[in-house]
Amino acid sequence: MNNLLRLEEGVARIVADDPWVLIRDLEAGLPAGQLILPLTRWLESPQPQGVWLGPDDEVESLKPWLAQLPLIALDFPSFRDGRAYSQAYLLRTRLGWTGELRAIGDVLRDQLSHMRQCGFDSFAVREDKSAEDALKGLAGMSVLYGRSVIEPRPLFRRR
Fold first, then answer.
1. What is the pLDDT of residues 3-21, one digit of tens each?
2. What separation in angstroms does the CA of 58 have from each of 51, 91, 116, 125, 134?
3. How far apart are the first and last CA of the chain?
4. Cα Rg, the chain, nearest whole Å
5. CA distance 53 to 38
6. Contact 6, 132 (CB under 8 A)
7. pLDDT band at 156 (very low <50, low <70, confident <90, very high)
8. Are 68 and 97 contacting, i.e. CB atoms less than 8 angstroms apart?
9. Would you say residue 1 has pLDDT above 60?
10. Which residues of 24-99 form beta strands (DSSP E)?
């Protein structure tokens, strides 16, 4: 994927050689390699490939296979559609999933800090945007007041 950012030990970096191939069009056939398949296709034969979920997909449907999944991508079809934030939070908190959680679709700099708070650790920034500029979006806010995946205690409990 182009314009991919990944958090490694809490530091955001641009990924130059991502081995994963996002498959959106199943009509074109499946190439060899590490694939990120749509949930409906992945469920036909669960395998140790990546899977991506759309906003209407239920994260609980992956529960039996979470231990074998190396990557889950959550789709933002529009910057106005925030359902993937809830999906990410559920995967990290309720289901306890610890693998790579990737934001795909209409991913923009202004969203990255909040995505990180919800549990995302890799971000496929929209191809028409600068990955270098997007890195600044991960710096985010210096103080978070509320709870998040990366800091479950609210500010008043951290004092």
1. 899 998 888 899 989 999 9
2. 13, 10, 21, 24, 29
3. 41
4. 16
5. 6
6. no
7. confident
8. no
9. no
10. 34-38, 50-53, 71-76
| SS3 state at 154 | coil
Which tokens in the block code for residue 119? 């549990």
- Is the full-model pTM beyond 0.70? yes
Is the pLDDT at 96 greater than 60, yes or no? Answer: yes
Query: What pLDDT score does 29 carry?
Result: 76
Q: List b or e across 18-38, with b for residues whose CB sees 16 or more CB atoms inside 10 angstroms.
A: bebbbbeeeeeeeeeeebbbb
**Smallest Cα–Cα separation from 34: which of 76, 71, 88, 75?**
71
Residue 121 has pLDDT above 90, yes or no: yes
- Strands in 4-8's sheet, in edge-to-edge order, are 11-15, 4-8, 122-124, 100-105, 71-76, 50-53, 34-38, 20-22
Where do the domains of the chain lie? 4-157
Fold of 4-157: Rossmann fold (3.40.50)
